[in-house]
Amino acid sequence: MDIQHSTRRSFVKGAGAAAAAFGFQVVPSRVFGANDRITLAGIGVGGKGTSDVSNSAAAGFQITHLCDIDGREGGRAQKSLETYPDARFFDDWREMLEAEGDKIDAVTVSTPDHTHAHAAVAAMNKGCHVYCQKPLTHGIWEARVLAEKAAETGVVTQMGNQAHAEDHMRRCVELIRAGVIGDVVEVHAWTNRPIWPQAIPAWPEKEEVPEGLNWDAWIGPAPFVDYSSQIHWFKWRGFWDFGTGALGDMACHIMDMSYWAAELGSPTSVKAVSADGAGAMTEISPPTWATIEYEFPARNGKKPVKYVWYDGYKDAIFDPDKWALVSKIDGGKIRERNLPPQNVLEGAGGDERSGYGSIIIGTEGKMWFNRSKENWYIKPGSLMDGFDAPEQTIPRARGQDPHNEFFDACKAGKPEMALSGFAHSGPFTEMVLLGNLAVRLDKKVKWDGENLKSPNTPEADALVKRDYRKGWELTL
Predict the structure, then answer these.
(1) Model pTM score
(2) What is the domain extent for residue 245?
(3) Of 53, 57, 195, 416, whose Cβ has the fewest other Cβ atoms within 10 Å?
(4) Which residues contact 8 (CB under 8 A, 6 or more apart)?
(5) Domain of 221: which CATH number?
(6) Are 265 and 449 in contact (CB under 8 A)?
(7) Whether 254 contacts 360, CB under 8 Å
């Protein structure tokens, strides 16, 4: 490849001919002096990637490389390309890392779920620090791989569940661990997602790939399907091959505080009911709603925990003409939320029911927590009377910002400073994605977390670790 022609205005053609697996050499994390600029490459720089790159720049990184499959005029990446005109542009991250990896200190990975693991592993193999959007990976095995790879390479890592860096979340973790509501025994969490089509019965019709859009690189390790505007952009979340549904989109945000505070680890089982009462509605797409129940064992002297997740709309059906979810009642806007029962929600405000939130139930009382609000509260309020509030034990992020925390950890060369690093977010993502396993298999899944195996559902193996498209094998 002629590196000099890999600019923002010149797109690499024939990406499928590029080598998919490179013999990356593991190098130690770079050491930075006080005046060194830490270089960063954005992988996926439209949509969420736009803010990930700009927030990284604000944190202190020098943006030197940009990669996106859509670098067209008016395309999703245009804002980033205009903001950083001197950055080298690629439309395939494999080629970028092969050609320029030794010049890149850190990367952000803001691609669709199904390519997170491949881009992150390749970057870590080059010695690059990695900030990767949630969910950390598309598959359960991939989450384990990323945690192990981060430990092996010693690079700084961070998952993009932003509220993990906010003071109010860290303070609630400290309070729960100090016993403000007693021992945690039950948690309920809910979301207003999906806001994209799900329960899709068949793939959309083939459309012409827009000139300048690298569809082969977008498909990456997933099974190949023809381009459609009903997949790209954003609607990919409603296809199992690319996305992880409402659970994958939001649980790494909403479940984070309670998982962290209660130190839940890996569950022993998970079961689900969903739209038709018997697993996913279609083979290719998540259901319109799901209720998922995880069981966590007693650990370190703490009681077992039941954790229930709720997503979707019970009146939702997929309308192929509108390519959208509509109400089965009148064909209009979906509105019948899948929420916890009233006896659990009792005490929650109406705004909580219309959006997302969580209730952590302890042996002494309840805590209502919403990651986007600082006015969490406890019931009964008398629990706070005379409560000996704990000292701060969790470090606070500069400006309550995850990109700042990532930058500061990179600058210091201390992976432990990034508190949503893969050592935490890898096991957390494994747990989250187990819910989709239960939805898709339509049975209670017993779980051996250490070995990533289900003793009662051997058919789970193919979903825990899926096959990749030829030429896109994951190079460890």
Answers:
(1) 0.92
(2) 165-394+426-464
(3) 416
(4) 66, 71, 81, 85, 87, 88, 89
(5) 3.30.360.10
(6) yes
(7) no
